[in-house]
Amino acid sequence: MKDLADFHHPITELFLQPKTKADWDQYRLSREQIDFFHENGFLAGIKLLDARQIEALKAALDEVMDPRHPLHQLFHEFHSNESGDPNKVLFHSLGHWRIAEAFHDVIWNPAFRMVTSQLLGDRAVRFWHDQLFCKPAHHGGNVAWHQDYSYWTRTVEMQHLTCWCGLDDATEENGCLQYVPGSHRWGLLEKPALAGEMDGLMAMMSEEQKASFKPVPIPLKAGHAAFHHPLLVHGSFANFSPRSRKAFVLNVFADGTVSDSDEPLLAGVPVISKGQKMGGKFFPLIFDPEELKV
């Protein structure tokens, strides 16, 4: 049994790797898509997975959700129910890329890597951390309105990006993502409890921001992703439908981001001193634009 964070390359054949520039070009965003992202703070509907890959990841998810997994100690966080309310269950974890081969290799999915580089300004990209968010049928909990970077201020400068990808179809009925377009220009707000009251963030917003608070639902077919800016306000409502809503999240940042803390950046990760560049075993380089020159 190995810590898969030791391997900074794909270890299965789940995601074929491009060998030529033409291979990479199939994953490129259009100028219109990139402009939409910068204007609205998000871009949705990007296909990342085929049916075989979805099934492999769902099987891996079932394994890592078991708290008796022999590599359970490798999680940075593990919450069977982060809300604490049995009527509002939200499974949430960080670190499963260290445990399951499919979740390790999804980080090296070329479709994901190409998009992250483009949305970060054609930069080299490093992995930050992964997350699982699972809402069971009938009693799945909400994720409160929040900005991702409000939880990440221990890293600077702010040049991060989030990718949310469903393993089930995500609909309004089962608690799909909801985005507030343009809210990435509001500046940094205080952080609420992630599985707390849905509207906790509202108390931290100005009257002008409240007037502009117009969420839009982001339904997605399984295997399709939404990418969003680290300051975009987003959340998701509870799932009382008869269908589960399983999803994984991949968080990245542009190469050159540094630690802004002398505390561990994630549980179980050695300290990277304040001012030192993020890298090493837990924050691998996953894309370099030089790869496009093959």
Architecture overview:
This protein has helices at residues 21-25, 31-40, 51-64, 101-105, 110-119, 207-211; strands at residues 42-47, 77-79, 91-94, 125-135, 143-146, 155-156, 160-166, 177-179, 216-218, 224-228, 234-236, 245-254, 258-259, 285-287. The protein is globular and about 50 Å long. The chain has one domain (42-293): q2cbj1_9rhob like domain (Jelly Rolls, Sandwich). Strands 1, 2, 3, 4, 7, 10, 12 and 14 form an 8-stranded antiparallel β-sheet that branches. The mean pLDDT is 96. The longest helix is centred in the first third of the chain and has 14 residues, at 51-64. By secondary structure, it is α+β, with helices and mostly antiparallel strands. The protein contains 6 helices and 14 strands. It comes from Algoriphagus aestuariicola. GO terms for molecular function: dioxygenase activity. Its cofactor is Fe(2+). This is Phytanoyl-CoA dioxygenase family protein. Keywords: Dioxygenase, Oxidoreductase.
In short:
This protein has helices spanning 21-25, 31-40, 51-64, 101-105, 110-119, 207-211, and strands at residues 42-47, 77-79, 91-94, 125-135, 143-146, 155-156, 160-166, 177-179, 216-218, 224-228, 234-236, 245-254, 258-259, 285-287. It is α+β, with helices and mostly antiparallel strands and 294 residues long. The chain has a single domain, classed as Sandwich (Jelly Rolls).
